[in-house]
Specification:
heterodimer; A: alpha/beta; Rossmann fold; 2 domains; seven-stranded mixed beta sheet; five-stranded mixed beta sheet; 12 helices; globular; B: alpha/beta; five-stranded parallel beta sheet; two-stranded antiparallel sheet; 13 helices; 7 strands; 46% helix; 9% strand
Chain lengths: 324, 351
Amino acid sequence: MATTTLAKAVNAALRAALEDDPKVVLMGEDIGRLGGVFRVTDGLQKDFGDHRVKDTPLAESGIVGTAIGLALRGYRPVVEIQFDGFVFPAYDQIVTQLAKMRARSGGRIALPVVIRIPYGGGIGAVEHHSESPEALFAHVAGLRVVSPSNAADAYTMLRQAVAGDDPVIYLEPKRRYYDKGEVDPAASPHPLHSARVIRLGRDATVLAYGPTVRTALEAAAVAEEEGTSVEVVDLRSVSPVDFDTVEASVRRTGRLVVVHEAPVFFGTGAEIAAHVTERCFDRLEAPVLRVGGFHMPYPPARTEHAYLPDLDRILDAVERVLAY
Amino acid sequence: MVQLLTPHGERVHHPDYDIEPTPGELREMYRRMALTRRVDAEGVTLQRQGELGLWPSSLGQEAAQVGSGLALRADDHVFPSYRDHGVALARQVDPLHIFRLFRGVSHGGWDPAEKNFHLYTLVIGSQVLHATGYAMGVADDDADSAVVVYFGDGATSQGDVSEAFNFAAVYDAPVVFFCQNNQWAISQGVERQSKVPIHRRAAGFGLHGVRVDGNDVLACLAVTRAAVERARQGREATLVEAFTYRMGAHTTSDDPTRYRQSAELTQWARKDPIARLEKYLLNHGWADADFVAGVGEEGDRLAQHIKESVRTMPDPDLTEFFDLTYAGEHRQVTEEREWFKEYEASFVEGS
């Protein structure tokens, strides 16, 4: 058990994966000599060599396309895309090839490729460095999409993603890279695609994942001071979604607010609202509300405090579901 | 342009790419090309009869496909595009796999490891990166296998193909880029895809480039054999431009009379790959009319087998496809599969 940052937990998980399985290789732009622009892969090329930690040409489609080829050869590539907004040159290879090749083969081949993407806003970045593309991947059959919210999950979920035989989009909440938490590599992990109730409450459920989980917990603490008991669920996995855990929470509280940074329009929250409505319509005391980004390109950094779902916007939504 | 057999069936020599196949090997090349043509013709026919949804014809490209395919060892890995029926036959892939795809009962469905022949890839140029990554893995394994990837002149316009050229060069990947320049990407001539001859692009990437007569099976075999050998030796990857011609339509959905002249077909028909090898074999007494007729009969039997098999291929049940998407369980897939099964069963029970 050690206290470490989320970024260092990712590093530790990559190191352990490289140590455990000689077929694991890392690929990405500037991940070797530099250690990545966020230093997440710091020291790994030095210790494992440039065949296992590959600094690639600056071409995202090329990185993912060759990772597919390496996977077909029996390797387990873990790819880093430098920033969320840089994944789209590789989107065709991910959606058209990586996600579909197993089905194309009649289930005969596996493509154990993990694509790590630092995602989300809140770091004062320029355009294309603050996006949340999870719904664009969750909509594609053949991909798994997960996002840890804390250091412990960052470690265990990445180990599980690398060990699995399906492609995984692993979204790292970059503004939480330096949040610290306890990481115990020996602890028995929760299943990769399970959601977790991380705070019990009676009056309403707030569901979040990745960078908004901390915000949701902060909102719940403030609500408690105001006499409202908020349950918080960390979704952890966007594809598949653990609706059993979500449903059980909603059945306890009768109200649901879904929070994510991505635009709410056609987003993860919409899918969750639809499922929850189908599963426990009889128990809902209010419509499911969504708190998230607006239907605009991610705005310039000086405005992102207003764009991102914050504590006040979450509390506002909690008040509105309670007002029904 | 490397040529070892003229359109008139005369043997010529090239200082860098000379091979002397035995008469038996020559007959086998002829046989594979003739079978490819027969299988391809059956594909067109079955589509016209409504048995297939689509068929992309390989007519005219038999030498490029069979010659290059026969240059490989069993452990070499092939990444085809979707018109490479001759390569499939050269690798002894069951042609019924390809017919299942174009009938619409599978998206391919064969095991790429069985003959080291990857699935057909329909999105243009994507497989060129897969082949390059596979070859990077071969190099990391310190293996001496080679990887050959097939694509067309149109694919050279795709960014993925340029990225693959670059990755192969900077990682010294043992890959052969085999471009069949069949002069047409659906309706657009090669001049719309590339300002310079395709093989000359190699130099800018640090690849070895060579243009070969794609209707000359001997030259295609020799050039590919040399390229594969370069790959095994860890020398720079090769871009082969096989200069050939798509005698048929792009696919059975296409109408080439809207964009090309019949005179062009007449001109290319004189360069037919099978006719020139047949002349060469007959002139030297390495084959006779009985041999030619025998290959024709073998082709007819194969076509008959394909026709009967295709017509009786059962339609798969949609239920099977739920389980092909993921290797592990996915809750939403499981829920949808179970719902669908119950829904279907509700009709069977008549309840």
